Protein backbone atom coordinates (compact mmCIF):
# COMPACT_ATOMS: atom_id res chain seq x y z
CA UNK A 1 0.00 0.00 0.00
CA UNK A 2 2.62 2.54 0.90
CA UNK A 3 4.45 1.48 -2.21
CA UNK A 4 1.32 2.03 -4.32
CA UNK A 5 0.68 5.38 -2.70
CA UNK A 6 4.30 6.29 -3.34
CA UNK A 7 3.96 5.40 -6.98
CA UNK A 8 0.74 7.38 -7.32
CA UNK A 9 2.39 10.37 -5.70
CA UNK A 10 5.40 10.00 -7.95
CA UNK A 11 3.19 9.95 -11.04
CA UNK A 12 1.26 12.98 -9.84
CA UNK A 13 4.44 14.85 -9.09
CA UNK A 14 5.89 13.93 -12.45
CA UNK A 15 2.76 15.10 -14.24
CA UNK A 16 2.77 18.34 -12.39
CA UNK A 17 6.39 18.92 -13.17
CA UNK A 18 5.97 18.18 -16.86
CA UNK A 19 2.82 20.32 -17.28
CA UNK A 20 3.45 23.06 -19.91
CA UNK A 21 1.87 25.76 -17.89
CA UNK A 22 4.54 25.51 -15.29
CA UNK A 23 7.58 24.76 -17.39
CA UNK A 24 6.92 25.78 -21.04
CA UNK A 25 10.59 25.64 -22.04
CA UNK A 26 10.71 22.00 -21.10
CA UNK A 27 8.02 21.25 -23.65
CA UNK A 28 8.92 18.51 -26.09
CA UNK A 29 8.39 20.74 -29.24
CA UNK A 30 10.56 23.62 -28.03
CA UNK A 31 13.95 22.37 -29.26
CA UNK A 32 12.97 22.49 -32.94
CA UNK A 33 11.65 26.10 -32.78
CA UNK A 34 14.68 27.26 -30.88
CA UNK A 35 17.04 26.10 -33.61
CA UNK A 36 15.10 28.01 -36.26
CA UNK A 37 15.04 31.08 -34.09
CA UNK A 38 18.73 30.82 -33.42
CA UNK A 39 19.42 30.33 -37.11
CA UNK A 40 17.37 33.42 -38.03
CA UNK A 41 19.01 35.41 -35.30
CA UNK A 42 22.44 34.45 -36.66
CA UNK A 43 21.39 35.43 -40.19
CA UNK A 44 20.01 38.71 -38.92
CA UNK A 45 23.18 39.34 -36.97
CA UNK A 46 25.22 38.59 -40.06
CA UNK A 47 23.13 40.97 -42.21
CA UNK A 48 23.42 43.69 -39.59
CA UNK A 49 27.16 43.21 -39.51
CA UNK A 50 27.37 43.45 -43.28
CA UNK A 51 25.17 46.55 -43.27
CA UNK A 52 27.44 48.08 -40.62
CA UNK A 53 30.50 47.32 -42.74
CA UNK A 54 28.80 48.84 -45.79
CA UNK A 55 27.88 51.99 -43.90
CA UNK A 56 31.37 52.27 -42.50
CA UNK A 57 32.76 51.88 -46.04
CA UNK A 58 30.42 54.59 -47.38
CA UNK A 59 31.37 56.93 -44.57
CA UNK A 60 35.04 56.30 -45.29
CA UNK A 61 34.48 56.92 -49.01
CA UNK A 62 32.64 60.16 -48.32
CA UNK A 63 35.44 61.34 -46.05
CA UNK A 64 37.99 60.45 -48.72
CA UNK A 65 35.99 62.26 -51.41
CA UNK A 66 35.67 65.33 -49.22
CA UNK A 67 39.39 65.35 -48.59
CA UNK A 68 40.06 64.92 -52.32
CA UNK A 69 37.76 67.83 -53.16
CA UNK A 70 39.39 70.03 -50.59
CA UNK A 71 42.81 69.10 -51.94
CA UNK A 72 41.70 69.73 -55.54
CA UNK A 73 40.33 73.15 -54.56
CA UNK A 74 43.65 73.99 -52.98
CA UNK A 75 45.49 72.85 -56.13
CA UNK A 76 43.16 74.93 -58.37
CA UNK A 77 43.67 78.00 -56.22
CA UNK A 78 47.40 77.54 -56.31
CA UNK A 79 47.31 76.99 -60.09
CA UNK A 80 45.27 80.19 -60.55
CA UNK A 81 47.81 82.18 -58.62
CA UNK A 82 50.60 80.54 -60.57
CA UNK A 83 48.79 81.20 -63.88
CA UNK A 84 48.36 84.85 -63.03
CA UNK A 85 52.04 85.13 -62.27
CA UNK A 86 52.90 83.21 -65.45
CA UNK A 87 50.60 85.38 -67.64
CA UNK A 88 52.18 88.50 -66.23
CA UNK A 89 55.68 87.26 -66.95
CA UNK A 90 54.62 86.03 -70.40
CA UNK A 91 53.13 89.41 -71.32
CA UNK A 92 56.19 91.21 -70.00
CA UNK A 93 58.47 88.89 -71.96
CA UNK A 94 56.46 89.47 -75.15
CA UNK A 95 56.65 93.24 -74.72
CA UNK A 96 60.41 93.06 -74.20
CA UNK A 97 60.76 90.79 -77.23
CA UNK A 98 58.75 93.16 -79.45
CA UNK A 99 60.78 96.15 -78.31
CA UNK A 100 64.00 94.30 -79.06
CA UNK A 101 62.67 93.24 -82.49
CA UNK A 102 61.64 96.80 -83.36
CA UNK A 103 65.01 98.11 -82.26
CA UNK A 104 66.76 95.45 -84.33
CA UNK A 105 64.75 96.27 -87.46
CA UNK A 106 65.42 99.97 -87.08
CA UNK A 107 69.13 99.73 -86.55
CA UNK A 108 70.45 96.54 -88.12
CA UNK A 109 70.78 97.98 -91.65
CA UNK A 110 70.69 101.73 -91.18
CA UNK A 111 73.75 102.50 -89.04
CA UNK A 112 71.62 105.24 -87.51
CA UNK A 113 73.54 105.12 -84.25
CA UNK A 114 77.31 105.18 -84.10
CA UNK A 115 79.11 102.53 -82.11
CA UNK A 116 81.22 105.20 -80.45
CA UNK A 117 78.26 106.50 -78.44
CA UNK A 118 77.52 109.61 -80.53
CA UNK A 119 74.04 111.13 -80.54
CA UNK A 120 71.42 109.69 -82.86
CA UNK A 121 71.15 111.63 -86.10
CA UNK A 122 67.35 111.54 -86.07
CA UNK A 123 66.79 112.01 -82.33
CA UNK A 124 66.47 115.79 -82.33
CA UNK A 125 65.61 118.19 -85.14
CA UNK A 126 68.76 119.44 -86.77
CA UNK A 127 71.12 116.83 -85.31
CA UNK A 128 71.68 115.39 -88.79
CA UNK A 129 73.45 118.64 -89.74
CA UNK A 130 76.15 118.26 -87.11
CA UNK A 131 79.46 117.68 -88.80
CA UNK A 132 78.07 118.53 -92.25
CA UNK A 133 80.00 121.20 -94.15
CA UNK A 134 77.23 123.27 -95.72
CA UNK A 135 78.14 125.57 -98.64
CA UNK A 136 78.20 129.29 -97.92
CA UNK A 137 76.15 131.97 -99.66
CA UNK A 138 78.71 132.73 -102.35
CA UNK A 139 79.09 129.10 -103.38
CA UNK A 140 75.35 128.56 -103.45
CA UNK A 141 74.78 131.71 -105.51
CA UNK A 142 77.43 130.69 -107.99
CA UNK A 143 76.09 127.14 -108.18
CA UNK A 144 72.56 128.37 -108.80
CA UNK A 145 73.63 130.79 -111.50
CA UNK A 146 75.95 128.44 -113.36
CA UNK A 147 74.17 125.11 -112.95
CA UNK A 148 70.47 125.82 -112.45
CA UNK A 149 69.83 128.91 -114.54
CA UNK A 150 72.26 127.76 -117.22
CA UNK A 151 70.28 124.59 -117.93
CA UNK A 152 66.71 125.85 -117.55
CA UNK A 153 66.85 128.79 -119.94
CA UNK A 154 65.16 126.92 -122.80
CA UNK A 155 62.14 125.72 -120.79
CA UNK A 156 59.93 128.59 -121.92
CA UNK A 157 60.59 127.85 -125.58
CA UNK A 158 59.89 124.16 -125.05
CA UNK A 159 56.60 124.88 -123.22
CA UNK A 160 55.44 127.13 -126.04
CA UNK A 161 56.22 124.51 -128.68
CA UNK A 162 54.51 121.65 -126.76
CA UNK A 163 51.39 123.68 -125.97
CA UNK A 164 50.97 124.74 -129.61
CA UNK A 165 51.31 121.17 -130.84
CA UNK A 166 48.97 119.81 -128.14
CA UNK A 167 46.27 122.33 -129.09
CA UNK A 168 46.54 121.31 -132.74
CA UNK A 169 46.43 117.62 -131.82
CA UNK A 170 43.34 118.04 -129.62
CA UNK A 171 41.56 120.02 -132.34
CA UNK A 172 42.18 117.13 -134.73
CA UNK A 173 40.98 114.71 -132.02
CA UNK A 174 37.66 116.55 -131.79
CA UNK A 175 37.22 116.27 -135.53
CA UNK A 176 37.70 112.49 -135.61
CA UNK A 177 35.40 111.82 -132.64
CA UNK A 178 31.67 111.29 -132.91
CA UNK A 179 30.12 114.30 -131.20
CA UNK A 180 26.95 112.37 -130.38
CA UNK A 181 28.61 109.29 -128.85
CA UNK A 182 32.23 110.05 -127.86
CA UNK A 183 33.54 112.05 -124.96
CA UNK A 184 33.85 115.81 -125.42
CA UNK A 185 37.45 116.99 -125.03
CA UNK A 186 38.24 120.47 -123.69
CA UNK A 187 41.41 122.57 -123.92
CA UNK A 188 44.55 121.31 -122.17
CA UNK A 189 46.25 122.96 -119.17
CA UNK A 190 49.89 122.87 -118.15
CA UNK A 191 50.73 121.78 -114.58
CA UNK A 192 53.73 120.61 -112.61
CA UNK A 193 57.34 121.68 -112.31
CA UNK A 194 57.72 122.84 -115.91
CA UNK A 195 54.92 125.40 -115.47
CA UNK A 196 55.96 126.34 -111.94
CA UNK A 197 59.52 127.07 -113.19
CA UNK A 198 61.44 124.83 -110.82
CA UNK A 199 62.27 121.73 -112.86
CA UNK A 200 66.04 121.22 -113.08
CA UNK A 201 66.68 117.67 -114.23
CA UNK A 202 66.70 116.65 -117.84
CA UNK A 203 64.93 115.48 -119.87
CA UNK A 204 62.40 118.25 -119.42
CA UNK A 205 58.86 116.85 -119.59
CA UNK A 206 55.74 118.99 -119.88
CA UNK A 207 52.67 117.73 -118.01
CA UNK A 208 49.37 118.61 -119.68
CA UNK A 209 45.92 117.62 -118.41
CA UNK A 210 42.91 117.41 -120.73
CA UNK A 211 39.43 117.69 -119.16
CA UNK A 212 36.69 115.72 -120.87
CA UNK A 213 32.94 115.32 -120.40
CA UNK A 214 30.35 112.74 -121.50
CA UNK A 215 28.04 113.33 -124.47
CA UNK A 216 24.54 114.60 -123.94
CA UNK A 217 22.27 113.71 -122.19
CA UNK A 218 24.79 112.21 -119.74
CA UNK A 219 26.83 113.83 -117.00
CA UNK A 220 29.43 112.90 -114.39
CA UNK A 221 28.58 112.73 -110.69
CA UNK A 222 31.64 112.29 -108.50
CA UNK A 223 32.16 111.08 -104.96
CA UNK A 224 35.36 111.55 -102.96
CA UNK A 225 36.71 109.88 -99.84
CA UNK A 226 35.72 112.93 -97.77
CA UNK A 227 32.15 113.28 -99.05
CA UNK A 228 30.67 111.46 -96.07
CA UNK A 229 30.88 107.76 -96.80
CA UNK A 230 33.63 105.84 -95.06
CA UNK A 231 36.66 105.00 -97.20
CA UNK A 232 39.46 102.68 -96.06
CA UNK A 233 42.84 104.33 -95.38
CA UNK A 234 44.36 103.06 -98.63
CA UNK A 235 41.62 104.83 -100.63
CA UNK A 236 42.10 108.27 -99.09
CA UNK A 237 42.89 110.76 -101.82
CA UNK A 238 40.73 108.89 -104.34
CA UNK A 239 37.19 109.12 -105.60
CA UNK A 240 34.72 107.52 -107.99
CA UNK A 241 32.88 108.95 -111.00
CA UNK A 242 29.38 107.82 -111.89
CA UNK A 243 27.91 108.28 -115.36
CA UNK A 244 24.25 109.35 -115.10
CA UNK A 245 21.64 110.98 -117.21
CA UNK A 246 21.40 114.71 -116.66
CA UNK A 247 17.74 114.43 -115.64
CA UNK A 248 18.41 111.60 -113.18
CA UNK A 249 18.35 112.44 -109.47
CA UNK A 250 20.68 109.90 -107.93
CA UNK A 251 20.88 111.63 -104.56
CA UNK A 252 17.19 112.10 -103.85
CA UNK A 253 15.96 108.51 -104.15
CA UNK A 254 17.12 105.46 -102.20
CA UNK A 255 16.36 103.00 -104.99
CA UNK A 256 19.85 103.47 -106.36
CA UNK A 257 21.49 102.95 -102.95
CA UNK A 258 19.53 99.94 -101.65
CA UNK A 259 18.43 96.65 -103.14
CA UNK A 260 14.69 96.60 -103.62
CA UNK A 261 12.89 93.30 -103.51
CA UNK A 262 11.74 91.59 -106.68
CA UNK A 263 8.15 92.49 -105.84
CA UNK A 264 8.95 96.16 -105.10
CA UNK A 265 8.99 99.00 -107.63
CA UNK A 266 10.23 102.58 -107.27
CA UNK A 267 7.41 104.97 -108.15
CA UNK A 268 9.88 107.74 -109.08
CA UNK A 269 12.11 105.73 -111.37
CA UNK A 270 10.74 103.12 -113.68
CA UNK A 271 12.74 100.04 -114.51
CA UNK A 272 13.24 101.29 -118.04
CA UNK A 273 15.05 104.41 -116.83
CA UNK A 274 17.18 102.82 -114.11
CA UNK A 275 18.51 99.83 -116.03
CA UNK A 276 20.54 100.41 -119.15
CA UNK A 277 22.05 97.91 -121.52
CA UNK A 278 25.57 96.84 -120.61
CA UNK A 279 26.87 97.74 -124.07
CA UNK A 280 25.61 101.31 -123.69
CA UNK A 281 27.49 101.81 -120.41
CA UNK A 282 30.64 100.25 -121.88
CA UNK A 283 30.39 102.70 -124.78
CA UNK A 284 30.44 105.41 -122.09
CA UNK A 285 33.73 103.91 -120.84
CA UNK A 286 32.23 102.44 -117.66
CA UNK A 287 33.41 99.38 -115.81
CA UNK A 288 31.62 96.21 -116.82
CA UNK A 289 28.01 96.01 -115.55
CA UNK A 290 28.37 99.26 -113.57
CA UNK A 291 27.85 102.98 -114.09
CA UNK A 292 31.31 103.90 -112.77
CA UNK A 293 33.86 105.40 -115.14
CA UNK A 294 36.77 103.04 -115.80
CA UNK A 295 40.22 104.69 -115.95
CA UNK A 296 41.68 101.90 -118.08
CA UNK A 297 38.94 102.17 -120.69
CA UNK A 298 39.32 105.95 -120.71
CA UNK A 299 43.04 105.66 -121.45
CA UNK A 300 42.43 103.09 -124.22
CA UNK A 301 39.85 105.37 -125.81
CA UNK A 302 42.19 108.37 -125.47
CA UNK A 303 45.15 106.56 -127.01
CA UNK A 304 43.07 105.42 -129.97
CA UNK A 305 41.66 108.93 -130.43
CA UNK A 306 45.14 110.51 -130.24
CA UNK A 307 46.46 108.03 -132.80
CA UNK A 308 43.60 108.86 -135.20
CA UNK A 309 44.14 112.57 -134.66
CA UNK A 310 47.88 112.30 -135.36
CA UNK A 311 47.23 110.35 -138.57
CA UNK A 312 45.09 113.23 -139.74
CA UNK A 313 47.65 115.99 -139.12
CA UNK A 314 51.00 114.14 -139.38
CA UNK A 315 51.59 115.46 -142.88
CA UNK A 316 51.88 118.99 -141.47
CA UNK A 317 54.92 118.22 -139.27
CA UNK A 318 58.44 117.08 -139.94
CA UNK A 319 58.70 114.79 -136.94
CA UNK A 320 57.18 111.57 -135.62
CA UNK A 321 54.89 111.11 -132.60
CA UNK A 322 54.76 107.95 -130.50
CA UNK A 323 53.76 106.68 -127.07
CA UNK A 324 56.97 106.46 -125.05
CA UNK A 325 56.12 104.65 -121.77
CA UNK A 326 53.96 101.57 -121.32
CA UNK A 327 53.30 102.20 -117.61
CA UNK A 328 52.17 105.78 -118.32
CA UNK A 329 49.59 105.62 -121.11
CA UNK A 330 49.56 109.39 -121.72
CA UNK A 331 53.32 109.71 -122.23
CA UNK A 332 54.10 110.98 -125.74
CA UNK A 333 57.41 111.65 -127.46
CA UNK A 334 58.17 113.88 -130.43
CA UNK A 335 61.12 112.56 -132.46
CA UNK A 336 62.84 114.93 -134.86
CA UNK A 337 64.79 113.77 -137.88
CA UNK A 338 67.96 115.20 -136.31
CA UNK A 339 67.69 112.64 -133.49
CA UNK A 340 66.49 115.05 -130.82
CA UNK A 341 63.27 114.36 -128.97
CA UNK A 342 60.79 116.14 -126.72
CA UNK A 343 58.68 114.25 -124.18
CA UNK A 344 55.38 115.39 -122.73
CA UNK A 345 52.44 113.83 -120.88
CA UNK A 346 48.91 114.31 -122.13
CA UNK A 347 46.52 112.89 -119.53
CA UNK A 348 42.69 112.98 -119.56
CA UNK A 349 41.04 114.25 -116.38
CA UNK A 350 37.52 114.81 -115.02
CA UNK A 351 36.62 118.05 -113.28
CA UNK A 352 35.35 117.81 -109.71
CA UNK A 353 32.08 119.73 -109.64
CA UNK A 354 32.80 123.40 -110.53
CA UNK A 355 36.30 123.58 -109.07
CA UNK A 356 39.82 123.21 -110.44
CA UNK A 357 40.31 119.92 -108.61
CA UNK A 358 40.51 117.07 -111.11
CA UNK A 359 40.20 113.31 -111.11
CA UNK A 360 43.20 112.06 -113.03
CA UNK A 361 43.12 108.70 -114.76
CA UNK A 362 46.81 107.88 -114.40
CA UNK A 363 49.30 109.67 -112.23
CA UNK A 364 53.09 109.19 -112.12
CA UNK A 365 53.58 107.37 -108.82
CA UNK A 366 56.74 106.35 -107.01
CA UNK A 367 57.53 102.77 -106.05
CA UNK A 368 56.53 103.72 -102.52
CA UNK A 369 52.86 104.23 -103.39
CA UNK A 370 50.47 101.33 -103.58
CA UNK A 371 48.54 100.45 -106.70
CA UNK A 372 45.10 101.88 -107.32
CA UNK A 373 42.37 100.07 -105.37
CA UNK A 374 40.57 99.46 -108.69
CA UNK A 375 40.24 101.01 -112.12
CA UNK A 376 37.07 102.81 -110.97
CA UNK A 377 39.03 104.74 -108.31
CA UNK A 378 40.51 107.98 -109.60
CA UNK A 379 43.28 109.95 -107.95
CA UNK A 380 42.56 113.61 -107.17
CA UNK A 381 45.12 116.18 -108.26
CA UNK A 382 45.34 119.71 -106.87
CA UNK A 383 48.06 120.77 -109.32
CA UNK A 384 46.12 123.78 -110.65
CA UNK A 385 45.63 125.19 -107.13
CA UNK A 386 49.27 124.52 -106.29
CA UNK A 387 50.38 126.52 -109.29
CA UNK A 388 47.96 129.34 -108.38
CA UNK A 389 49.14 129.39 -104.77
CA UNK A 390 52.77 129.76 -105.83
CA UNK A 391 51.83 132.59 -108.19
CA UNK A 392 49.72 134.27 -105.51
CA UNK A 393 52.32 134.04 -102.75
CA UNK A 394 55.10 135.17 -105.10
CA UNK A 395 53.37 138.54 -105.42
CA UNK A 396 53.89 139.16 -101.69
CA UNK A 397 57.56 138.11 -101.60
CA UNK A 398 60.60 140.34 -102.20
CA UNK A 399 62.00 140.67 -105.70
CA UNK A 400 63.99 137.63 -106.85
CA UNK A 401 62.75 135.65 -103.83
CA UNK A 402 64.65 132.47 -103.08
CA UNK A 403 61.74 130.01 -102.61
CA UNK A 404 61.97 128.58 -106.13
CA UNK A 405 65.77 128.57 -105.94
CA UNK A 406 65.65 126.50 -102.72
CA UNK A 407 63.33 123.97 -104.30
CA UNK A 408 65.47 123.73 -107.43
CA UNK A 409 68.68 123.17 -105.46
CA UNK A 410 67.03 120.57 -103.21
CA UNK A 411 65.55 118.76 -106.21
CA UNK A 412 68.94 118.78 -107.94
CA UNK A 413 70.76 117.39 -104.87
CA UNK A 414 68.19 114.67 -104.32
CA UNK A 415 68.22 113.66 -107.98
CA UNK A 416 72.02 113.43 -108.07
CA UNK A 417 72.09 111.40 -104.86
CA UNK A 418 69.48 108.97 -106.19
CA UNK A 419 71.53 108.52 -109.34
CA UNK A 420 74.44 107.46 -107.10
CA UNK A 421 72.71 105.28 -104.50
CA UNK A 422 69.46 104.30 -106.22
CA UNK A 423 65.88 105.58 -105.92
CA UNK A 424 64.28 106.34 -102.57
CA UNK A 425 60.77 106.94 -101.30
CA UNK A 426 61.11 110.71 -101.67
CA UNK A 427 59.74 112.40 -104.78
CA UNK A 428 59.87 115.92 -106.14
CA UNK A 429 56.24 116.32 -105.07
CA UNK A 430 57.29 115.74 -101.45
CA UNK A 431 59.96 118.40 -101.81
CA UNK A 432 57.45 120.85 -103.30
CA UNK A 433 55.03 120.13 -100.43
CA UNK A 434 57.78 121.07 -97.95
CA UNK A 435 58.27 124.39 -99.76
CA UNK A 436 54.52 125.11 -99.77
CA UNK A 437 54.28 124.55 -96.00
CA UNK A 438 57.24 126.86 -95.32
CA UNK A 439 55.86 129.53 -97.66
CA UNK A 440 52.72 129.63 -95.55
CA UNK A 441 54.36 129.78 -92.11
CA UNK A 442 57.41 132.00 -92.69
CA UNK A 443 57.16 135.80 -93.14
CA UNK A 444 57.59 137.10 -96.67
CA UNK A 445 60.79 139.02 -95.84
CA UNK A 446 62.49 135.73 -94.89
CA UNK A 447 62.52 134.76 -98.56
CA UNK A 448 64.82 137.55 -99.70
CA UNK A 449 67.48 136.36 -102.17
CA UNK A 450 70.34 136.90 -99.69
CA UNK A 451 68.71 134.37 -97.32
CA UNK A 452 69.00 131.47 -99.73
CA UNK A 453 71.34 129.50 -97.45
CA UNK A 454 69.12 129.85 -94.36
CA UNK A 455 65.92 128.90 -96.20
CA UNK A 456 67.57 125.89 -97.82
CA UNK A 457 68.62 124.67 -94.39
CA UNK A 458 65.07 125.27 -93.15
CA UNK A 459 63.70 123.05 -95.91
CA UNK A 460 66.21 120.31 -95.10
CA UNK A 461 65.41 120.49 -91.37
CA UNK A 462 61.68 120.44 -92.04
CA UNK A 463 62.12 117.42 -94.29
CA UNK A 464 64.26 115.74 -91.62
CA UNK A 465 61.52 116.30 -89.04
CA UNK A 466 58.87 114.86 -91.35
CA UNK A 467 60.99 111.79 -92.05
CA UNK A 468 61.61 111.29 -88.34
CA UNK A 469 57.88 111.47 -87.56
CA UNK A 470 56.83 109.73 -90.80
CA UNK A 471 54.35 112.54 -91.31
CA UNK A 472 54.19 114.96 -94.22
CA UNK A 473 50.69 116.30 -94.66
CA UNK A 474 49.21 117.29 -98.00
CA UNK A 475 49.32 121.06 -98.27
CA UNK A 476 45.68 121.62 -99.26
CA UNK A 477 43.75 118.71 -97.73
CA UNK A 478 42.76 119.59 -94.17
CA UNK A 479 44.44 123.02 -94.36
CA UNK A 480 42.01 125.65 -93.09
CA UNK A 481 44.47 128.49 -93.79
CA UNK A 482 44.36 128.31 -97.58
CA UNK A 483 43.94 131.86 -98.96
CA UNK A 484 40.33 132.61 -99.84
CA UNK A 485 41.46 134.20 -103.11
CA UNK A 486 42.13 130.75 -104.53
CA UNK A 487 38.49 129.69 -104.25
CA UNK A 488 39.54 126.31 -102.92
CA UNK A 489 36.64 123.88 -102.17
CA UNK A 490 35.69 123.94 -98.50
CA UNK A 491 35.02 120.19 -98.40
CA UNK A 492 38.74 119.47 -98.75
CA UNK A 493 39.72 122.11 -96.20
CA UNK A 494 37.46 120.46 -93.61
CA UNK A 495 38.67 116.95 -94.39
CA UNK A 496 41.11 115.05 -92.22
CA UNK A 497 44.75 115.87 -93.14
CA UNK A 498 46.22 113.41 -95.61
CA UNK A 499 49.62 112.02 -94.62
CA UNK A 500 51.81 111.63 -97.71
CA UNK A 501 54.33 109.61 -95.67
CA UNK A 502 51.81 107.01 -94.54
CA UNK A 503 53.37 104.34 -96.83
CA UNK A 504 56.59 104.67 -94.79
CA UNK A 505 54.74 103.14 -91.84
CA UNK A 506 53.82 100.11 -93.95
CA UNK A 507 57.12 99.73 -95.83
CA UNK A 508 59.94 99.89 -93.30
CA UNK A 509 62.60 98.80 -95.80
CA UNK A 510 61.71 101.71 -98.11
CA UNK A 511 61.74 104.04 -95.10
CA UNK A 512 65.25 102.94 -94.07
CA UNK A 513 66.46 103.36 -97.65
CA UNK A 514 64.91 106.84 -97.84
CA UNK A 515 66.48 108.03 -94.58
CA UNK A 516 69.86 106.61 -95.56
CA UNK A 517 69.66 108.42 -98.90
CA UNK A 518 68.71 111.65 -97.15
CA UNK A 519 71.66 111.43 -94.74
CA UNK A 520 74.02 110.56 -97.57
CA UNK A 521 72.74 113.57 -99.53
CA UNK A 522 73.48 115.84 -96.55
CA UNK A 523 77.02 114.50 -96.28
CA UNK A 524 77.57 114.91 -100.03
CA UNK A 525 75.98 118.36 -100.34
CA UNK A 526 79.24 120.28 -100.49
CA UNK A 527 80.85 117.78 -102.84
CA UNK A 528 77.90 117.77 -105.22
CA UNK A 529 77.63 121.57 -105.30
CA UNK A 530 81.38 122.13 -105.67
CA UNK A 531 81.50 119.60 -108.48
CA UNK A 532 79.10 121.70 -110.55
CA UNK A 533 80.34 125.12 -109.47
CA UNK A 534 83.06 127.28 -110.94
CA UNK A 535 85.82 127.63 -108.34
CA UNK A 536 85.66 130.84 -106.31
CA UNK A 537 89.05 131.89 -104.81
Automatic annotation (TrEMBL):
Similarity-based family: Belongs to the ITPRIP family.
Protein's UniProt keywords contain Membrane: yes
Residue ranges of coiled coil: 38-82
Residue ranges of domain Mab-21-like HhH/H2TH-like in the record: 404-477
Keywords linked to the UniProt accession: Cell membrane, Coiled coil, Glycoprotein, Membrane, Nucleus, Receptor, Signal, Transmembrane, Transmembrane helix
GO cellular component: nuclear outer membrane; plasma membrane
Matches recorded under PANTHER family: CELL FATE DETERMINING PROTEIN MAB21-RELATED, INOSITOL 1,4,5-TRISPHOSPHATE RECEPTOR-INTERACTING PROTEIN
Listed name of the protein: Inositol 1,4,5-trisphosphate receptor-interacting protein
Domain of life the protein comes from: Eukaryota
A Pfam family matched in the record: Mab-21_C
Localization in the cell: Cell membrane; Nucleus outer membrane
Species lineage: Eukaryota, Metazoa, Chordata, Craniata, Vertebrata
Alphabetical list of CDD domains matching this protein: UDM1_RNF168_RNF169-like
Membrane topology type: Single-pass type I membrane protein
Physiological role: Enhances Ca(2+)-mediated inhibition of inositol 1,4,5-triphosphate receptor (ITPR) Ca(2+) release.
Annotated GO MF terms: protein kinase inhibitor activity
Amino acid sequence: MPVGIFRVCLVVITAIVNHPRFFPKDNGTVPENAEEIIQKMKEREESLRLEQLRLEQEIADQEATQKALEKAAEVVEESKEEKVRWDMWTALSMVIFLLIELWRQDFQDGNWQDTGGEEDDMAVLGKAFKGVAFPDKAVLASFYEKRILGTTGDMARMREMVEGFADDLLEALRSVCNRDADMEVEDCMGVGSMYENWRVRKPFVCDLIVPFAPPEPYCFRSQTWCSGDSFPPDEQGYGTIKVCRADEDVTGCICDKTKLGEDMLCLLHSQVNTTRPSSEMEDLLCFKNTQYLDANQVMKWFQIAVTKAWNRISHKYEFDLSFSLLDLPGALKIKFRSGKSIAFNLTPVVQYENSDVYFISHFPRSGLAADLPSSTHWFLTFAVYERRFIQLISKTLPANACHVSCLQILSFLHGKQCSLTGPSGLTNYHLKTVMLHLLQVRPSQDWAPEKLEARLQDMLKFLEKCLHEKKLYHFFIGNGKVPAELGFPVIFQRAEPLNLFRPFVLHRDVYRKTVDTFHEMLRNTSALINEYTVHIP
